[in-house]
Backbone:
């Protein structure tokens, strides 16, 4: 690698020497891995595809094939190595599934790896082109939707009857001279102003640009911070929490059967033991539950007494169960959409909302007459430090409202999904080696801030959203359940499929 870098220095200056001022009318052409991204290896992103579409066995197949890819990469050609990764990952996959993962899963991981110097130059130019050896279908959604690329030129995969064959179209994988040819074909007689690359096989296309700069491989470069990204990642899907490097992929494969058995044991403990003992059982099984604040006492059994309505931020479908665990008593919950398996395994009473306002209001009032109740008015989960819009129905039904800020920690698997089977959500959460929940009870809503005190239901809902967001250091948004599912799954989260898309600029200050 040292030899390659020394050779590159003889050909091109480094990226830090590139001026980013006054380039509003310039055209920039950049490589992806090792250039726009800090990481030079594309294996983690292929591994995400392998696991999210093909499961643990496809990830194992890719991991076994990766040494062959590495040998071909270093001793035959970069093209041959990448072809092996493409085949091991995508052969037999539905093209629609590949597009779905590229849209819903990869942007989160790509955005966390943006190279600050490359981004400084790339973002300063008026027209942006990315030239990559990766399959175009794999990277285009992130590059165009999140960092404003105008043109994405990548390797084209072949398909048959809607499934990828694992092979690539002519002229093959875009490396070396193939990149230069693709650039000429795209721009014709126009010469791009700036070329950015990181390795010898980028030199052919870099020589076609008026100015070219090399991005040296440095492991200590910090990625572009979330606050500086042009578009925040509010929604993302996928089961894996960490980027699956080869070592992380191996650990995931080895842990998976152990984790599944452990998850079954943890779920059984939560479902079969009295709620007063669940906290201790979880602690013994490696699940940590932390309670903060002052929860209200159990409701009094008297005529005309209404139970307390707990309003929670929504991180996983297990929020009501961990609230009950923290309180040491079961609290009934109303749900928007959970699987029958989750309802069957739930240690607390769950009641489905019908999405008919009058019927739902009547049902919630009846449940409050029976005791305390928990609602997650966002209507769906959000993984990032944002709160979705709160439905205002709950505010019209009672003044006994206690906001609850829910936060959790997962190190290996996410316990939510928009694209997959929701019945596996609790299993994936409990498959983490040491999952944790923090339940923070905030002050009961004062009378003057309730509907009885003169506030509208929307004012009450927005106030509680702001209070919970402030407690968690999250941002409030006006995104809804439909926005999430349209962005991640291409439907509205209920039945009828719709085209993907989500309204922009819905983040608002609290």
Residues:
């Amino acid at each position: 690698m040292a030899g390659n870098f020394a050779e590159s220095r003889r050909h091109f200056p480094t990226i830090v020497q590139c001026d980013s001022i006054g380039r509003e009318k310039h055209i920039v052409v950049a490589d992806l891995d090792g250039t726009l991204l800090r990481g030079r290896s594309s294996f983690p992103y292929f591994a995400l595809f392998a696991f999210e579409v093909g499961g643990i066995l496809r990830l194992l197949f890719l991991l076994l094939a990766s040494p062959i890819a590495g040998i071909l990469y270093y001793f035959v050609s970069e093209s041959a190595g990448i072809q092996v990764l493409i085949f091991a990952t995508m052969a037999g996959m539905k093209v629609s599934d590949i597009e779905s993962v590229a849209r819903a899963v990869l942007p989160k991981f790509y955005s966390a790896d943006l190279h600050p110097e490359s981004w400084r130059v790339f973002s300063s130019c008026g027209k942006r082109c990315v030239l990559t050896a990766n399959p175009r279908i794999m990277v285009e959604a992130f590059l165009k939707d999140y960092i404003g690329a105008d043109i994405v030129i990548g390797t084209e995969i072949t398909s048959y009857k809607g499934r990828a064959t694992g092979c690539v179209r002519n002229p093959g994988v875009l490396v070396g001279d193939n990149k230069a040819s693709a650039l000429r074909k795209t721009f014709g007689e126009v010469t791009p102003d700036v070329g950015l690359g990181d390795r010898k096989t980028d030199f052919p296309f870099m020589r076609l640009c008026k100015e070219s700069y090399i991005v040296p491989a440095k492991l200590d470069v910090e990625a572009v911070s979330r606050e500086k990204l042009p578009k925040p990642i509010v929604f993302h899907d996928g089961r894996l929490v960490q980027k699956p490097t080869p070592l992380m992929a191996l650990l995931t494969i080895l842990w998976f059967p152990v984790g599944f058995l452990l998850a079954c044991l943890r779920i059984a403990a939560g479902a079969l033991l009295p709620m007063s003992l669940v906290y201790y059982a979880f602690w013994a099984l490696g699940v940590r539950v932390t309670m903060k604040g002052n929860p209200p006492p159990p409701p009094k059994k008297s005529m005309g007494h209404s139970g307390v309505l707990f309003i929670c931020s929504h991180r996983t479908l297990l929020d009501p169960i961990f609230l009950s665990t923290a309180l040491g008593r079961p609290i009934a919950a109303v749900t928007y959409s959970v699987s029958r398996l989750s309802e069957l395994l739930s240690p607390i009473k769950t009641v489905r909302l019908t999405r008919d306002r009058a019927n739902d209001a009547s049902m919630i009032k009846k449940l409050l007459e029976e005791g305390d109740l928990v609602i997650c008015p966002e209507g769906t989960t959000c993984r990032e430090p944002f709160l979705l819009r709160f439905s205002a129905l709950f505010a019209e039904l009672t003044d006994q409202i206690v906001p609850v800020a829910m936060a959790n920690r997962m190190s290996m698997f996410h316990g939510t999904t928009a694209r997959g089977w929701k019945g596996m959500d609790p299993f994936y959460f409990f498959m983490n080696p040491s999952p944790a929940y923090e339940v923070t009870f905030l002050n009961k809503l004062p009378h003057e801030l309730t509907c009885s005190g003169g506030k509208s239901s929307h004012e009450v809902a927005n106030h509680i959203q702001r209070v919970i967001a402030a407690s968690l250091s999250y941002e409030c948004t006006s995104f809804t359940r439909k926005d999430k599912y349209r962005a991640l799954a291409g439907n509205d989260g209920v039945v009828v499929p719709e085209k993907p898309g989500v309204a922009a600029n819905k983040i608002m200050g609290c």
About this structure: Residues 2-228 form a domain with the Rossmann fold fold (CATH 3.40.50.1000).
